[in-house]
Amino acid sequence: GGMLMLLPFLLKQHKVWKACRMRIFTVAQLEDNSIQMKKDLEHFLYHLRIEADVQVVEMMTSDISAYTYERTLMMEQRNQMLKQMHLSKRESRKEVQKVVDIHHKARDSKGEESSPDDVLLEGATPTKEEDAEPKKKKTLPPKGDFGNLLDIKPDERNVRRMHTAVKLNEVIVQKSHGAKLVLINLPGPPKMKAGDENYMEFLEVLTEGLERVLMVRGGGREVITIYS
């Protein structure tokens, strides 16, 4: 968390961000001492000479909503469908671009403006090597192969992770929807390559509804103390 507090402080040294107010939110569980957590963090910031408003947000224990369950189910169904379709590299990029386009269209429908550059996905343009590849006839699996998608039940671990992402997003949007910049701890990437698709979906849910987000994750060697 030290790097996460230091970055906005450094940004405020620039004239563009100098007039901005810095707020630090820390999440506490019901069993935590929220008052003591706030005092300790304010004491730490005082010695670092960082001026910021400290707020402790208590995450209430709640049941998993139908939206969370449905979002997880859609994520797993899409991943399974892409595996069954055996999409090539170029086709996979097109599928990702479609998701980005749908996301921006949904945002535009809420009255927000976006430029054509915002809709473009970096790397979506086919390379020369891909253009040189001979066109292969697209082979889709029989319709019956997709029938098992309706029988998929979301993995319990994915449901819990999605629930955490949804609840954190609700708090961030509620507290910092109008913020010029939101800095968030970047969750650790999955150790197994098979979870890459789900990891990106969790990040999408975590930052949904926020205009400008900077996600930070240290390398584990950074040390920020009041004695440095």
From TrEMBL:
InterPro entries attached to this UniProt entry: SLC12_C, SLC12A_fam
Extent of Basic and acidic residues compositional bias: 104-113
Subcellular location: Membrane
Keywords of this entry: Membrane, Transmembrane, Transmembrane helix
Keyword Membrane part of the UniProt annotation: yes
GO terms for MF: chloride:monoatomic cation symporter activity
Residue ranges of every copy of the SLC12A transporter C-terminal domain listed in the record: 1-228
Pfam families in the record: SLC12
Superkingdom per UniProt: Eukaryota
GO cellular component: membrane
Membrane topology (UniProt): Multi-pass membrane protein
PANTHER family, alphabetized: KAZACHOC, ISOFORM G, SOLUTE CARRIER FAMILY 12, CATION COTRANSPORTERS
Listed name of the protein: SLC12A transporter C-terminal domain-containing protein
